[in-house]
Every structure is written in structure tokens, then in C-alpha cells.
Amino acid sequence: MALKKVAVLVAGSWGTALARVLADNGHRVQLWTRNPAQADEINRLRRNEKFLPGAEIPDGIAATTDLSAAVRDAAAVLFVSPSSAMRDVARQAAAFIPRDALVVHATKGFETDSLKRMSTVLSEELGRPEQQIVVLSGPSHAEEVIRRNPTTVVVAAKEIACAEAAQDLFMNDSYFRVYTNPDIVGVETAGAIKNIIALGAGLSDGLGYGDNAKAALITRGLAEIARLGEAMGAHALTFAGLAGVGDLIVTCTSRHSRNWRAGSMLAQGLPLDEVLTRMGMVVEGVRTTKSAYVLARRHGVEMPITDQLYAVLFEERPPGQAVEALMGRVKTHEIEEVAGEARRGRTPG
């Protein structure tokens, strides 16, 4: 494969880790940041200490604060900005991105006000068909990818040729394996909503409820993700794959998970504002809880875990009361709930 110039926007933890994958694959990587001090740290010291402390940035990555220079002549542009900033970053970059450049994003969340998926936001701002936008997702902590730990992800696009082009760009034989999937709705929905369940897992662990409770939360959380995803047009099998159960497991069980850490702090009684201040980085699950809460009502889907986390985050419900509300729900049949409710025209609970 011919070596390419790839622009990565922005230089957070995940953007930096994926930049390393691209550089290891021999590509010339332009990593964009708004922060001149961060660009200087990456270029001079080969470090990005705020986001990936102790990790070494390879020489194949050059940081810049000049967005036009970063994306001009790029064969591919990778957007890894927070969901809240995606539209603004895409709007600024749109005029400079070559028309034939591959566009990929690796952001897990919805636009808060519009509730749109990131591929839709990029399509609108870049003026290109949504079916040509690719999403990269799956169980992949930046802290492990930057150290070349074995990782497997999925790239999804409605046009499979675009997904295959992204697969060729990112995949290598040593530590980063990439599968393709045509179900971009399912991959984006799973990647966003698993952050809500990870908040709940951190909250459960912070309350000392143990492994039984967390296993139940992950399992029932996956059911919620699949219900909403299918209502939005996703394929059920996507949620049994890397972007679904794979990403859910790693985010709910790892010390690297920002959402898990935030949930654990909430369980200790810290107010949400203080939790977010202490984290110092974006916790996508907080915004996504708002989005999923509204989307569930829009699509007529029952999401009890999401409802209770919404109450904890935004209505000051004590975490213990939220757990009691979940445990006290009306009894139901698990297999009937998973497989039979849709056939009878009722929303499962």
C-alpha cells in the first residue's frame, strides 16, 4: 500500500493513539490541536502528557495548530474531536479537505441538541454523502493502543468500499486488527450508549455492589443498547460484535475508562460538576445520557438503566435509590423480553 498523508483532528488521547497506529503503518501523520503548547510538546519532547502520560510519540507524527495545513493534500482525514465539538471542527476544516479524501471518525456520542449521529454531522458540514463517512469503533483504550497492545476494532460505512479503504489504512499485522461492517447506525449507536452503561458500572462498583450486580448491569445494558439501536434502523447482530458487547465489556470493567471513573466518583457523593472538573477530560457518557433519554422517548423504547442514570445525573436522585428503582421493577420473562416483545408490538422493559 502506498504511504499517505493522514490528518488527525484532534490531539486528545484517542486521536494521539490512532495517530501512532497510522505512523506505525508508515503514513505521514499531521496531528491538529488548538493548543500551541501541546503542539510544541509533541514536536519537541515527543510527549502528550495531559492525555497519555508517559507515552512516547513516534517521529512519524507532526503536530500543528494550522488546520488548513493539517488537512490540505491529505488522503484521509480522521476526526476524533468530542461529540460537542464535532460540528465546529468539521465546519472549520471543510474548505480545505480534498474532495477525494477518505473521511473517518472515531468519536462515540450524539450531537446533544439535534441528537444526530456523528456521521450525519460530518455529512452535513463536509457536503458529502453520509454513506461515504466511516466510523471506527470497538474495545480500544487509547492507553493500550499507544503502547501497541493487541487491539481489534471495526470500521463501518454504508459504502463497503469506504470501510475497506479505512481497513487498509489502519490495519497492521502486529497489534491493530480491523474488521469491516456495513451497519454504521448500529456501530455508532453502540459506541455512544455503552458509555452510559459504563457510568452505571462505575457507580455500582463505587457503591460496593460487587460482580453480580455489574454483570447484570452489563447484560441488561446491552439489551437497552440493542433495543434503541434496532429502533433506529441498526442490525441486531452488530450488538453481539466488537462495537457492541466487546466495547461494552472493556468500558465497564477497565481502570482506563473515563466513564467508569466518573460513575465511581458519583457513588462517593461528589456532585456532577465536581466530578467533571476532577476528570479534566470529556466524559461522553454524561452528554449521551441526555441524548439517549430523549431518543428513547422519540422511538418508544423503554430504557430503565438510562432513565435511572438520567435521574442521578440531572435530577439529583441518590444512586442507592436508583438501584432500588431498577430492582423493584415489575417482573418479566427474560427470553420473552428479548425475543418476543417486538412480535407482539410491545416495547420490552
TrEMBL record:
Pathway field: Membrane lipid metabolism; glycerophospholipid metabolism
Signal peptide span: 1-19
Binding of NADPH, residues: S13, W14, R34, K108, A142, R258, V282, E284
Top-level class of the enzyme under EC nomenclature: oxidoreductase
Gene3D superfamilies attached to this UniProt entry: N-(1-d-carboxylethyl)-l-norvaline Dehydrogenase, domain 2, NAD(P)-binding Rossmann-like Domain
Oxidoreductase among keywords: yes
Domain Glycerol-3-phosphate dehydrogenase NAD-dependent N-terminal, residue spans: 5-161
Cytoplasm keyword on record: yes
Residues that, per the record, bind sn-glycerol 3-phosphate: K108, G138, S140, K194, D247, S257, R258, N259
Residue ranges occupied by any Glycerol-3-phosphate dehydrogenase NAD-dependent C-terminal domain in the UniProt entry: 183-324
Main localization, broad class: cytoplasm
Keyword annotations of the record: Cytoplasm, Lipid biosynthesis, Lipid metabolism, NAD, NADP, Nucleotide-binding, Oxidoreductase, Phospholipid biosynthesis, Phospholipid metabolism, Signal
Its biological purpose: Catalyzes the reduction of the glycolytic intermediate dihydroxyacetone phosphate (DHAP) to sn-glycerol 3-phosphate (G3P), the key precursor for phospholipid synthesis.
Protein name: Glycerol-3-phosphate dehydrogenase [NAD(P)+]
